[in-house]
Specification:
alpha+beta, BirA Bifunctional Protein, domain 2, Rossmann fold, 2 domains, nine-stranded mixed sheet, five-stranded mixed sheet, 12 helices, 28% helix, RNA-binding, aa-tRNA-synth_II
Amino acid sequence: MRLSSYFLPTLKNSPREADTISHRLMLRAGMIQQSSTGIYSWLPLGFKVLKRIEQIIREEQNAAGWNEMLMPTIQPAELWYKNNCYNDYGPEMLRITDRHKHNMLYGPTNEWQITDIFKKHIHSYKKLPSRLYHIQWKFRDEVRPRFGVMRGREFLMKDAYSFDIDRETAKINYNRQFMAYLRTFNRLGLKALPVNADSGLIGGKMNHEFVILADKGESEVFCQKDWLNADVNIDKFDYNENLQPVVDSYLKRYSATKARHDPVNCPIELGNLINLPCIEVGHIFYLGNKYSEPMGARVTCPNGRKKVVHMGSYGIGISRLVGAIVEAYNDKNGIVWPEKIAPFHLGLINLSVDDMTCRTASEDIYTKLCSAGVDILMDDSYYRPGVKLAIMDLIGLPWQIVVSPRHAVNKIVEIKNRRTGKREEISVEEVLTRFAPANQALT
RNA sequence: CGGGGUGUAGCGCAGCCUGGUAGCGCAUCUGCUUUGGGAGCAGGAAGUCGGCGGUUCGAAUCCGUCCACCCCGACCA
């Protein structure tokens, strides 16, 4: 992509409305634009990141054995009449009346809807387990949205659901998602901690939050110190094996959210306990019969009797993740994207567009890397060098290639690693061998 | 939902107290100069001063009211 034809409205000053660092940077980098409180338009750069994250999540959900589908954003209110949920949900639910005076709502979550779909089609234990997920926008009319996309009212979420014959088999799916989450966050370049919320309860509801550590996180986690250096390298495992031992190996370490942490009964001695700010990015639940029972989601068992299915639901806040990642990865000059989710893998800066040598070299590199499948943003603008460098730092692409009159005559360019700031002068030929995907795992 | 704060050019802000023809920086447009960290000079364009009502000869400024947005708390992916 050429910067000259890319919609990238960067800002030198951040708008007054933004206070949180990730919010400011996302506005300044031209990623998002606020529409109203907690509701944003995603401009091309932000949209690209959103899609990258979405795709990694999708691949991992598929790998874990879930079926992708899509449920609507607008739901009929009748779905929520069970157990008086429609009334109990309160003002957080955005209620809509259509022209026929039917009560509708913009879905804050999809448990009722998915259960409705399940029960209409699945009637036998032989069809279990059943695993479905979708990636869709949700709306919760929060009392106070804040932190930009980290806590919006409209948000993109991956929500997966599982249906099983009993608690034990439901646990298998729960463990699958647990591992899928570790893999997903790992691929996103994030160190995510599963936070055991209800560690002591047996047979009751079970749920884990996944949080990433960030200096200005909105919540806090209490955990064992060795979590921080824990090996989250989970490349080698088989979803069809018994995952319980692996999951247990992660859960043996203590972790709790601020709200759930009990300093009196904490099993960890103080010296081994650490308290850190974090952001919640995922949540998995074993739901039991909470939705299946009132909805009448039952299957016929081998003995001919009907049985209410056991459900699980598993969410990842995708739009929130974008903000959370920016919150975790930035420096004084701007965003510093982890390579796997960067909107472009590298930025090619032609410092002097009028210089024919620079232009020829830039076009040459651009053409060759593009055809090699590298996703590049080339700054072919007439901005001054200082502006170009500042913008490239701001939008945080992992690598920068600088073509300047200083070096271009000698077929040399400068490459800079955005994270380390380390610069290196290499030949044009070497650029190709270094950044083409055949030689380096960039994608 | 309680408490605090802000609405003036695309962005950041001054002006308001003490009413009198709308200002500054950056961005943008034109020209010249400059060219490795958000340039310099000169010129230009751009505003129903959040909306409505009131006071006044005259309102960005004073009064009333409504709206939008931000921050702190309680609450959530």
